[in-house]
Amino acid sequence: MPEANTSERTPEPAAWKASRPRLVRAAGIAGLLVPVVWTAIVALELSQGQVSHSLVSRPERFFGALDSRWFAVLLVAGAALLGLQLLLVGGVLLRAERRRVARAAFAVASIAAAARYGVSLLAPDPHLYGVSQARGLAALVLLACLPAALVLVGAALGGRGRALAWLSAILAVAMVWMAADWTIWSLRSGALQPQLWAVEPVEGLAAAWCALAGLWLLGLPESLRSRPGAGLASRLEPGLPPSLRQAAIPGPGRKASVALAVVAIAGLVGVSSPFVRDYEPTIAAQLTGRTQVETIHVGDIDRTYRVYRPVRAAAHPGLVFILHGVFGDGFIIESNSGFDAQADRLGWIAVYPDGVADGWDAFGSGPTWGQHPGADDVAFISAAIDRLEATDAVDPDRVYVTGLSRGAMMTYRLGCELSDRVAAIAPVSGNMATADGSVDVPCNLDRPVSVLAIHGTADGTIPIAGGKTDILFSPLVDVIARWRALDSCAGTQTVAVDGASTTTSWACRGGSTVAMRVVTGGWHTWPVRSSSPVPTNPDDFDASRLIADFFVAHPLVAGGG
Q: Which of 254, 268, 301, 380 has the smallest count of CB within 10 Å of its CB?
């Protein structure tokens, strides 16, 4: 393209012409400093943030513990360096209309910086238990604005910085991919605001761009920094590095831009389709209103839970609470357990509560497990029962609890502490032990509570034989023996074999039952029936249907039996 006529350019102030070389050099140095500032911010967040067992499923605990004054200084410094660089990268030797695009890039980057400030400081409560909608929105703004700023920089550079223009476009696509991939990864792990997990890696790409752009600016010839004018590119191009010569690298034109957009869309579809395929029933239930997210204030904080109401609910439906594992959430256990299908079959209501921080304050809690100040999980479930009995006319004699892993541990606790309300429990891959591995936990029943425990012999997370992993666990046989004593069970047992599973049952006081299903070779998972006509692994059975049928057979024991 020939250079535009000199009359079409906006005259530059003399001061700008004189200071151009120093500003370009400053912008280059600033670019190299941006990753340093970013690394300092991340280091402070790691050192002061409430980081524990997993950041993938609880990324909100990574942000929020910094002293706001120091964080403000670092963030403003980083934003100032980035802003200077954007203005000068886009402004050096560009026509006036391209400088306007560069200023737009600076404005978008400034919005991203403000959003980043919000991500770190908009904590909903001092313990970071709750979910801040403002913080989640700030993260989405950040994830949208950073790639947009790079796209605008690439458009502003045009023919004068084709290498950097291509680099900006490629990094923008990488940001979009990374934001989607990390968000979905976090969502699969049970994060309530999974977009927060994508903030740091996308910021890291932006910091890398700043460093590369700084090197590009520092590599410009002195004459290119200081002598703008008509035909300057054609006069100085022979003195440019090979990577910046017009003939060496064609600019990203319309076809290339369309191709990059197609690549970005293909990447988004690629990382999103497996998630949509695996979680489609749960997503559809929420979109159609069958599943609703409700909030109840208990103790010092707001607690959330997901409620699935079938199309044809019974006049007085049963109520089943399904508790997620460590660092999970209601969405994950609703999807993985498939218990919505049992709610449809029976006309019952299924509830999937959200724990706080790492999950539930169950038996075996210690300095790094449980111990959630201000959060009373037992009071939370009890309050949810009260609300649903009032709003949905649930049958008070048919309230049940089941759960996986840490949720199974909490299931045992709820069976003990809400025995006047909970008719039966069904822990899956759980345990009931004190911090020293003993089953001597507080448990005084007002009424018998039926128990169906499901556990695999190959469970390496909570060993069926007990022992220490994260904490000390008691053997399953000891847990079942404790419940047999609590429910005054008979000594005679009944044994039934179903494939790789063996179920041992005892008849107990008031018509209650204590049973354990041991899955030979079973893992630490919620067993789900596959579509194969022949079971493909020991856990290939419908645990949700098995549990639901057990609940149907065991209503609340009247009068304590």
A: 254
Angle, vertex CA 450, rays to CA 444 and CA 451, nearest 5: 95
The predicted pLDDT at position 125 comes to 76
Query: Strand order in 450-456's β-sheet?
Result: 291-298, 301-308, 349-353, 319-323, 399-404, 424-428, 450-456, 513-519, 501-507, 493-498
Question: pLDDT, tens digit, for every residue of 284-304?
Answer: 998 999 999 999 999 878 899
Catalogue the long-range contacts made by 138-144 (C-beta closer than 8 Å, 24 or more residues apart): 139/115, 139/193, 139/195, 139/196, 139/198, 139/199, 140/195, 141/111, 141/112, 141/115, 142/112, 142/115, 142/116, 142/199, 142/202, 142/203, 143/175, 143/179, 143/195, 143/198, 143/199, 143/202
- pLDDT of 226 over the 50 cut: no
Q: Which domains does the chain have, with CATH numbers?
A: 14-275 (no CATH), 289-560 (3.40.50.1820)
All residues at 6 or more sequence positions from 252 whose CB lies less than 8 Å from its CB, including other chains: 154, 162, 165, 166, 169, 260
Contact 549, 318 (CB under 8 A): no
426: enclosing H helix or E strand: strand 424-428
pLDDT 10s digits, 137-196: 999 999 999 999 888 887 777 655 677 888 888 899 999 989 999 999 888 887 888 999
Q: How far is CA 174 from CA 187, 213, 476, in A?
A: 20, 17, 48
Q: How far apart are CA 420 and CA 440, in angstroms?
A: 21
CB distance 107 to 70 below 8 Å? no
Contact 52, 357 (CB under 8 A): yes
